[in-house]
Each structure stands twice: as structure tokens, then as C-alpha cells.
Amino acid sequence: MKKGRWVPLLLACVLLMVAAGCGTGGQNKNTGAEGEDAKSPGKLRDVQLMLDWSANTNHTGLYAAKELGYYEEEGLNVQIVQPGAGGTDTLVASGNVPFGISYQEGVTLARTQGLPLVSIAAIIQHNTSGFAAPKDKGIVKAGDFEGKSYGGWGSPVEEAVMKSIMEIDGADVSKVNMVNMGDADYFTAVKRDIDFAWIFYAWTGIEAELRNEPLDMIYVKDYSDQLDYYTPVIVTNEKLIQEDPELVRAFMRATSKGYNHAIEHPEDAAALLSKAVPDLDAELVLASQKWLSPRYQDDAPRWGEQKAEVWSGYADWMFERKLLEKELDADRAFTNDFLPEQP
Q1: pTM, rounded to two decimals
Q2: Which residues of the chain have pLDDT under 70?
Q3: Which pLDDT value is given to residue 170?
Q4: pLDDT for residue 343
């Protein structure tokens, strides 16, 4: 799985959809808001949760909550769906989908453009993404990017991150050959077109281990605390928080139970994900889950906890590098209010 797509070119569409969504008078019952059927005693309320990418172990807690009946216990029939046309952030910001999976950088960009996305949980406590290269490429630090070919997706944030960490090593980002990978597979691309790419270790890095194709991994968080941001996160929109906070609480109670199950029982959680999404490689799911489960909560007091300094630190980094038009009001970009209290 490559590092998630960035969304700057979609913002005009998002703004139009948000404006349209504001005039609908509420969400339909497929997305889990108003309607008599949703409120009838004994009836489960239909709620959609839209992923950021194809299903993987970033999402295991969601599938565990569904498969173990935690959502049903909260009166919810949660449908986990693939990203829609225009992207998950677009649909959540517009109110067409109540919950989604996003990234701190996407939420930050959206908030500074006036879009009402709010992060309600950090799925992983620390950034597990970074630049990866096969060991035979000799890329062991950011300074080694000089003279090499990087496979990316053409986002301004890629070059900005690369420039930031290369400068720490006294290197020049202009000496990197940028190649647009599109949807090419990482393992094919590094044999054919590129030397390194940006990945999440929990999936592509673990797959490399299983393939016996070892990588050198350069985690961006190791170069700067500002780059230790939350990725991915669970998002909703301000309107749902204001109009139906109990739905958000119910969803998060069940979701938290799902992720805590994955933390405590990684093998069982992997089996639940493989059962729910049988197209996934079960061996990869299990190995990835064992690596990722202790990293969901890590050093936080509870799963999902977010810190203001993480939100402001990354936003400041983005603003300083002209990736944002204005500074972020970090306190409005996220909330811990819907996380269950610590046991």
C-alpha cells in the first residue's frame, strides 16, 4: 500500500458538495442520520463508514467491531465501504457519509479551506510511514536520495517532506529524479523504474519481509517531531457532531472496543479481518497485524487519543513551507470528546 493520496485538487469539488449538503436538511438513513425507521425501537440504525483505501490492517478495529457485534450492541448497522468518487474527505465534509478514514494532512488542508472535517480518533499513535528502498539500492538516510529516482503521486507535500529531511543531512532535493508512479505496484516499480517510494511499513514493509526482499526504511518521524503526525485518523463533520452527538459517541464506543480487541488479540483480529475481506492475503494480514497491534495505542493513555501539539506542530510545518494558505486552528481540527473514558 502506497502512502495515501493527497487531496488539494479536489477542494473545489468539496466546497461545492458541502454547500449542496448544507441545504439537504439532514442526512439520509443510509448514512445514519435522521428518519423514523432509524429511531424505531429494536431497529438498527444504518451507518456508513468510508475507508481511505482498500481494506488493510489500519482498519482491523473497524472490522472487529462489526464482526464481534459491538456496533449492533450500540444499535448500529455499520456498512464499511470503499472510497467514493471524489474521495472520502469530500463525502464526509459534505455530510453525505457520516464517518470516514482520513489523514492528518488531509484534515489540516480541508480545515484551512473552511471545510468542516473533524478528526475524532487517531488510529495509530505515531507515524509509521516513510521512504523505503530495497537494500541493494544503498539508501540508508535521506541524504542518499540524491541521484536516485523517487516514485510518488505528484503531491507538493512529498517534495516538501523530502526537502525538509534531506536538508538535515545536507543534501539537495533538486538532485532527486521524481517519477509519477500512478497506481503501479511498489515491488514492480522498484525493479523497473524507481529506487525508493513512500510507504506504510505495516503493510508494504511487512510484505517485503514475507517476500524476503528486505528494505531500508527511513521513517519521517525520526527526522522531525513535526512529522510525527497522525495517519490515519477517523473523521466526521461538524454538523453531525452538533446535531447528533450521541450517534458519534455510540459509533466511537464500539470502534474503540474493536481496536482494543485488536490490540489485545492480534491473531484473532487478523482472522476477523481475513474473514470479512477474503481477498486479502491471510499470511500478510496476520504478520502485519502482529507488527501493528502494539502501535495502535503505543504510549497514549488510551486508543485514539490525540494531542493538540501534534496537530499544531504539523500544521506549522506545512504553513512554513507554503503548503497551507493560512494557519490552522488546531483545537477545532480534532476532538477527544467522543472517546470512551479509560477503563
Answers
A1: 0.89
A2: 1-41, 343
A3: 98
A4: 59
State the pLDDT at residue 86: 80
Q: Which three cell numbers stand for residue 32?
A: 445514519
Query: Residue 329 and residue 17: Cα distance in Å, rounded?
Result: 23
pLDDT at 9: 37
Q: 83-87: long-range contacts at Cβ-Cβ below 8 A with a sequence spacing of 24 or more?
A: 83/50, 83/51, 83/52, 83/53, 84/50, 86/10, 86/13, 86/14, 86/17, 87/5, 87/7, 87/10, 87/14
Domain boundaries defined on the chain = 8-126+230-333, 129-227
Number of Cβ atoms within 10 Å of the Cβ of 39: 11
Q: Which three cell numbers stand for residue 153?
A: 503521486
Nearest to 254 by CA among 107, 112, 20, 77: 77
Q: Do domains 8-126+230-333 and 129-227 have the same CATH topology?
A: yes
Contact between 63 and 258 under an 8 Å Cβ cutoff? The reply is yes
CATH topology classification for 8-126+230-333: D-Maltodextrin-Binding Protein; domain 2 (3.40.190)
Q: β-pairing, 233-237 with 99-102? A: antiparallel
pLDDT reported for residue 157: 92
Q: Whats the size of the chain, residue-wise?
A: 343
Place of cell 501493528: 292
What SS3 state is found at 146?
A: coil
What cell was used for 299?
504510549
Cα 230 to Cα 32, 89, 106, 210, 236: the distances in Å are 26, 15, 11, 26, 16
Q: Tens of pLDDT along 107-146?
A: 999 999 999 999 999 999 999 999 999 999 999 999 999 9
Give me the pLDDT at residue 3, please.
52
- Cell digits for 95? 455530510
In the structure, how many helices (H) and strands (E) does the chain have? 15, 10
For the domain spanning 129-227, the CATH number is 3.40.190.10
Give the model's pLDDT for residue 1.
Answer: 53
